[in-house]
Every structure is written in structure tokens, then in C-alpha cells.
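B., you asked whether I could sanity-check this one before it goes into the benchmark set. Here's the sequence:
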Amino acid sequence: MTQPSAPTATPAAPTIYTTIPISPADVISRSLHNLTAFVSRLRPWPELIASGTFNRPDSFASGLSRLRINLRYFRINYAIVVSVSGALSLTGSPYALILFALVFALWLLIYFFREDPLVFWGYQVSDRLVLVGLVLVSILAIWLSGGFWSLVLGIVIGILICGVHAVLKNADGLFLDEREAASRSLISSASGAGYGAVPVSDRVEFTISD
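And here's what the prediction gave me:
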């Protein structure tokens, strides 16, 4: 009597991944959407320049703490200030201003805010190649415009303005989320999730007297 042979395992079919071709126009459109969503988190400008909230920090550690908190809280406002400062430094050369604006837009749309692969003529362009291409384009723009040092000076001035503001602005009551507020003892760490943190100045306590 012959023993029945053990069933042989059938090798699994290889998994085939398919990708949907995305045109450069679609990539730029999605990048614009991401950029718009990023800018929508802009803090109100009156909050940035509110009077009565500036004073000298008590210590070096306090200054560093203010710098860290304000840079995170007003990061979009500061980015706009630095960009405007750099643009103003090139107002004497409209050609350089336009050229650098185009290069800056390329960096934003096809590098910093791009989520999808960039495909040209059916070939996917790697992120490293995109980075190398943008660096070469930037070097070419600097060489053609001749306004590099003016741009650097404008950016440095903008960074100094933002740094001084971040150190001098009192960061009390500024926090990004509930965990940040709890770590600074502004709210109880056991408070319910899903609600935005409220600064101490905006909370009202009621007492009942006999």
C-alpha cells in the first residue's frame, strides 16, 4: 500500500504594485494645496505685535525658552517676515527679484511641499535628482542676477529681527497644544482630550460664598 503523498505548497504569486501616473500639473496643484494649508496656520498679526507683552528675560535660560516657544508658535509669521526682508533687499534690481521669486517658488512647489512622485515622460524623477536640479538652478540664478549678497543681507536682517522679537516677547500663555499647556502647568494634565487649550488669561473662575 502506498502512502498518499503530502500536498506540496504552491508558491504565492508575486505582488505587483501599480502606480497611477501623476502629471507635473497635478503635483504642483497638490503642492499649492499643501502650501495653502500651511499658510492657513498663520497667527494673527496683532498677536505678534501686541503692546505690553515685551520685556527683557530674567535669565539666559529664560531667553532661550522664549526663543524656542515663540519660534514654534510664530514660525509662519517669522518665515513671512524673513521672505519679505529678502524681497525688499532686491527691490533695487527688479530682474533679480523676479528671478529669485521664481526659484523660491520652485523650491516650495516641487521640493518642500511635494507629496507625490514627479514624473516626466513616463519616468519618475528621484528626490535626489530633484534636489540636485534645484541647487543647480539656484546657482545659475545667483550667477545671472548678481544679487546674491543683497539677498543674503536681507535674509540675515529678517532673521535678526525675528530673533530679537522672539527673545523679548513674553511667551506666557502661548502654547501649541494641550500637552504643552500641561507641561507648563497651565491646565491639568488630566483634562479631556479633543479640546483646544485655553490660556490662563482667558479662563474665568467662579466662587460661591455663603
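One thing to flag: DSSP finds eight helices and two strands in the chain. Otherwise nothing jumped out at me.
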